[in-house]
């Protein structure tokens, strides 16, 4: 697995990301998210009716994720530098990210095909994954506003947060302690565990491997954000087709 691009570009920056700075950034982000999420919840309760609770919940979750992103961007400013590396590198790298996503899908299909005796087949695995990885079932019958907020959160805000944290901050810190392949593997495993549901674990792990490789190869989390956004948009449309 070739990782020279990132190694050459951030060797000096890696030394500045020690454990204390990592924990301060994560702790500060969580504290800020709790405060803004709580304030948003009570603020929305005062202006929204009980019938709008689904909309309020979606807004609060979006505010929490947005606060986490803003906290990391503030803690590691400017965001286009290490460890976040939120920067455009090249159109070629964007194309590589899209190709890598297709590779991710191919490998994931092979993995779930092997797991078919346990999961009940590819179609059943897809339905189970989509039921927990999208809001299609949870938002069934909810107003259009709740759908709009949920789509923006699930297809943009959450991908930005997860890539900034796992492929930016987390992977950058792990590279201080592990070889590149080990850092990618551990970050992918943590990414999979974070998703929680057993049926999603293999897909999330494979996704973490591919996005970690793209992050290392291109030196940018913007490219992995593109992969993540593409993935979640496809999942949304697949969920609307298979679960409605």
Please explain how this structure is put together.
The protein is mainly α and 244 residues long. The chain is built from ten helices and no strands. It has helices spanning 4-14, 19-47, 53-75, 91-114, 116-119, 122-133, 144-174, 180-195, 201-218, 221-242. Helix 1 packs across helix 9 (201-218), helix 3 packs parallel to helix 7 (144-174) and helix 9 runs antiparallel to helix 10 (221-242). It is globular.
Question: How does the SSE layout of this entry go?
Answer:
Layout: H1 4-14, H2 19-47, H3 53-75, H4 91-114, H5 116-119, H6 122-133, H7 144-174, H8 180-195, H9 201-218, H10 221-242
Helix pairs in contact: 1-9, 2-3, 3-7, 4-9, 4-10, 6-10, 7-8, 7-9, 7-10, 8-9, 9-10
């Amino acid at each position: 697995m070739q990782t020279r691009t990132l190694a050459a570009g951030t060797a000096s920056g890696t030394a500045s990301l020690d454990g204390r700075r990592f924990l301060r950034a994560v702790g500060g982000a969580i504290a800020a998210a709790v405060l803004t999420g709580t304030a948003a919840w009570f603020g929305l309760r005062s202006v929204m009716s009980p019938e709008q609770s689904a909309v309020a919940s979606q807004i609060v979750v979006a505010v929490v994720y947005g606060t986490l992103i803003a906290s990391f961007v503030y803690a590691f400013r400017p965001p286009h530098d290490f460890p976040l590396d939120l920067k455009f590198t090249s159109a070629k790298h964007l194309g590589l990210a899209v190709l890598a996503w297709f590779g991710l899908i191919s490998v994931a299909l092979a993995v779930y095909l092997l797991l078919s005796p346990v999961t009940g087949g590819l179609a059943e695995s897809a339905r189970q994954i989509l039921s927990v990885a999208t809001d299609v079932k949870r938002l069934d019958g909810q107003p259009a506003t709740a759908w709009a907020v949920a789509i923006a959160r699930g297809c943009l805000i959450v991908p930005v947060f997860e890539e900034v944290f796992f492929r930016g901050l987390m992977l950058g810190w792990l590279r201080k302690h592990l070889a590149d392949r080990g850092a990618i593997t551990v970050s992918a495993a943590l990414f999979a565990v974070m998703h929680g549901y057993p049926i999603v674990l293999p897909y999330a792990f494979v996704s973490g491997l591919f996005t970690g490789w793209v992050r290392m190869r291109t030196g940018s989390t913007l490219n992995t954000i593109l992969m993540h956004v593409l993935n979640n948009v496809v999942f949304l449309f697949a969920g609307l087709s298979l679960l409605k």
